[in-house]
Design goal:
The protein is of the alpha/beta class. It contains 14 helices and 13 strands. The termini are close together. The structure holds zinc ion (ZN). The site of zinc ion has 7 residues, from helix 7.
């Protein structure tokens, strides 16, 4: 079975791409999903020879071809400077069995959000949510196409894979020292992240939606949640049935994203176009792929546009990993890769990783991806090797 591992470029260049390739081959890994455009992050790198932690603002890890971009241009990682980590890694992997895939969190950039507040997701109250660029914005769409073309045309990737190239979610997957002392729950998260930027409003108006009514209902719904007038575990679908303007407003996003992904799949061709299903939360709070509509993703149209779906099946209980893979296979007409987090807070021992890997394979996963090369300790890498050997 095809097995990939996610990797940040600093861990690969610090250790040396050739040495990493050999090590991965020994573990039974044949692909690397390399971070090329990523959100801000601090990583702990237990086995990195040069640095045990890395701080990065949202940035790209290659030298972009500047003429491709319009209003929004990528930020080159400040630690990388004039180097081109992507080029170094692609060269290093060239004579090895390791295939390279691009992994980008295309619209999740607090750096670009700060520079372009007009292009960010805007809460129903009018706040700019700076961690997320809104896919309805023409400037953001142009950026998505340019970035994807820039990466594809390097000619080094078998697949170009995207994460969070969608409308994301209210808390934006975390921020420094977040102070959210109100339990948002799925409804609060959904409504707070429902974008009311000028582009989303204009698209919804064109589709015949009563936008002001939708915004007022979304604000009222949030205030009701803040004040405890609706429960934290209110079913979002049920709430939307009672608030049809919001329902219709959210629906318009699906058409916008489907059209954008249609463009992106053309840009990516002839490489494969992969999409990650990361629907918020981790462990017991994690939502399954069936919640993708909350990010504006219409699974029925997406199946025709992507070559592979990766479900991030990050859950301690192997039966939930199995259910995640099953649900993705049922809901989406595309090959399904299971993403498995091979470390804390999900996996703390070899047996759990083996059970999760087995569950994904038994549920019919077509391929596997493990998280992640530099961020798990040596012993966890060994567990990945053992898990792959066990399913052969
Ligand atoms: Zn918007």
């Amino acid at each position: 079975m095809n097995a990939a591992i996610w990797a940040h470029p600093w861990d690969v260049v610090d250790e040396g791409p050739e040495r990493v390739a050999q090590r991965l081959t020994d573990l039974g890994i044949d692909e690397v999903n390399l971070a090329t455009a990523m959100h801000s992050v601090q990583t702990l790198n237990p086995h990195n020879p040069d640095r045990k932690t890395f701080f990065a603002d949202a940035s790209v890890y290659f030298q972009p071809e500047e003429g491709r971009y319009g209003e929004i241009t990528p930020d080159v990682n400040s630690t990388m400077g004039d180097r081109d980590w992507l080029a170094e890694i692609a060269d290093g992997f060239d004579d090895t069995p390791i295939a390279l895939n691009s992994w980008s969190a295309t619209f999740h950039s607090s750096s670009l959000g700060r520079q372009h507040p007009d292009a960010t997701i805007e809460s129903p109250f009018g706040d700019s949510l700076i961690w997320g660029l809104c896919p309805s914005s023409p400037a953001v769409q142009e950026y998505g196409r340019a970035l994807t073309g820039d990466l594809t045309d390097r000619g080094v990737f078998d697949a170009v894979e995207m994460e969070l190239a969608d409308y994301q979610y209210g808390t934006g997957y975390g921020w420094h020292h977040q102070e959210w002392f109100t339990r948002m729950g799925p409804l609060g998260e959904f409504l707070f992240g429902l974008c009311f930027c000028e582009h989303c409003r204009s698209r919804a108006t064109d589709a015949g939606v009563d936008v002001e009514r939708a915004r007022e209902s979304a604000r009222d719904g949030l205030t009701d949640r803040f004040e405890g007038r609706v429960a934290h575990d209110t079913d979002v679908g049920g709430w939307l049935k009672a608030h049809p303007a919001v329902d219709a407003y959210a629906d318009v996003r699906c058409d916008t994203l489907a059209a954008l992904y249609d463009d992106l799949s053309d840009v990516v061709s002839p490489s494969d176009f992969g999409y990650y299903f990361k629907m918020g939360g981790l462990g017991d709070d994690r939502m399954g792929v069936e919640h993708s509509w909350k990010h504006g993703i219409d699974l029925s149209s997406l199946g025709d546009l992507i070559d592979e779906a990766t479900v991030l099946a990050y859950h301690r209980d192997p039966t939930v990993v199995r259910d995640d893979v099953n649900a993705t296979r049922t809901l989406l007409d595309a090959p399904v890769r299971a993403g498995i987090l091979a470390g804390h807070p999900i996996v703390h021992d070899r047996e759990t990783l083996l059970a999760q890997t087995r569950a994904a394979v038994d549920a019919g996963a077509d391929a596997l991806s493990f998280y992640g090369y530099g961020v798990v300790p040596e012993r966890n890498l060994d567990w990945i090797g053992d898990a792959l050997a066990a399913i052969e």
